[in-house]
Design goal:
Blueprint (H helix, E strand, L loop, with lengths): L15 H7 L3 H15 L21 H6 L1 H9 L14 H7 L3 H7 L4
Helix pairs in contact: 1-2
């Protein structure tokens, strides 16, 4: 489902926070919260792990909702997807994702 491709090109269906939400899996929420807390040096609780997808209506994790610089930029520019942004090729924010994800780079070339 194209709606579940995030602004940055990542596939929300492959995100463990999305899977935990979709399956109401508290054990997975706990695992994701622990991992993300360790990776980011902040306290993330299992209750924060609820996300229906970056561009989809509904719940978001606190990071995705208000801290993700890519999502915030897309919302400010009122673009439906970073793949359609004129600044895609030179965007430093987007490069944080695309430098490590061939799938995101490919998804950004799709028409949504």
């Amino acid at each position: 489902m194209k709606e579940l491709i995030a602004y940055c090109g990542l596939d929300c269906e492959k995100c463990e926070a999305f899977a935990a939400t979709k399956n109401n899996d508290d054990a997975l929420r706990k695992k994701v919260a622990s991992l993300w807390s360790e990776l980011n040096g902040v306290s993330i609780t299992p209750e924060m792990i609820n996300c229906d997808g970056c561009r989809a209506a509904g719940r978001k994790t606190p990071f995705c909702e208000s801290l993700c610089p890519i999502r915030q930029c897309a919302l400010e520019k009122a673009v439906s997807f970073c793949g359609g942004c004129a600044e895609k090729a030179s965007c430093e924010k987007l490069r944080l994702i695309t430098a490590n994800s061939a799938e995101a780079r490919e998804n950004l070339d799709m028409e949504l």
